[in-house]
Amino acid sequence: MKKHIYSTFILLTLVSCSDIIEVPDISNDAVTLIAPANNATLSLTTLTLSWDRVEDAESYQVQIARPDFENILQLEQDSIVTENSIEIELEAGNSYQWRVRAQNSQYTTPYSTYSFSIE
């Protein structure tokens, strides 16, 4: 009888713990990029990339490529950040593409991608 009660207690504990650690699926959500705007031409070499937060995201992967991700010459940045912006410094006279995806411990969103150039 004690074994049965003990087994039932362990089973109930495990079932209730799974409810506590369930991670929301964000894989169908999208990151909305804010700045710099898509296809912007900038004159500053120090700039802030920003985007809207995704509910239930724990962090964001931010990547910057030169000139773009299809024809990459240089991966300028590949960072994981917990905020919804990052300050970067890049060289003038180049075109860049940046992308962000949200992530939590089990899921990621697709990347959202914008392009810009610096004069």
Written overview of the protein:
The chain is α+β, with helices and mostly antiparallel strands and 119 residues long. It has a single domain (24-118), classed as Sandwich (Immunoglobulin-like), CATH 2.60.40.10. It has 1 helix and 8 strands. The protein has one helix spanning 2-20; strands at residues 33-35, 40-42, 46-51, 59-66, 74-81, 85-89, 94-103, 112-118. A 5-stranded mixed β-sheet has the order 2-8-7-4-5, with no helix packed on it. β4 (59-66) and β5 (74-81) form a beta hairpin. The radius of gyration is 21 Å and the shape is elongated. The model has no long low-confidence stretch (mean pLDDT 90).
Q: What is the CATH architecture annotation?
A: Sandwich
Strand order of the largest sheet: 2-8-7-4-5
Q: Superfamily at the CATH H level?
A: Immunoglobulins
Low-confidence stretches: none
Overall geometric form: elongated
Beta-strand share of residues: 35-45%
Q: Biggest sheet: strands, sense, closure?
A: 5 strands, mixed
Key words describing this protein structure:
16% helix; Immunoglobulin-like; 119 residues; 1 helix; 3-stranded antiparallel sheet; 5-stranded mixed sheet; elongated; alpha+beta; 8 strands
SSE layout:
Elements: H1 2-20, E1 33-35, E2 40-42, E3 46-51, E4 59-66, E5 74-81, E6 85-89, E7 94-103, E8 112-118
Parallel strand pairs: 2-8
Antiparallel strand pairs: 1-3, 3-6, 4-5, 4-7, 7-8
Brief description of this entry?
This protein has 119 residues and is α+β, with helices and mostly antiparallel strands. Helix content is 16%, strand content 42%.
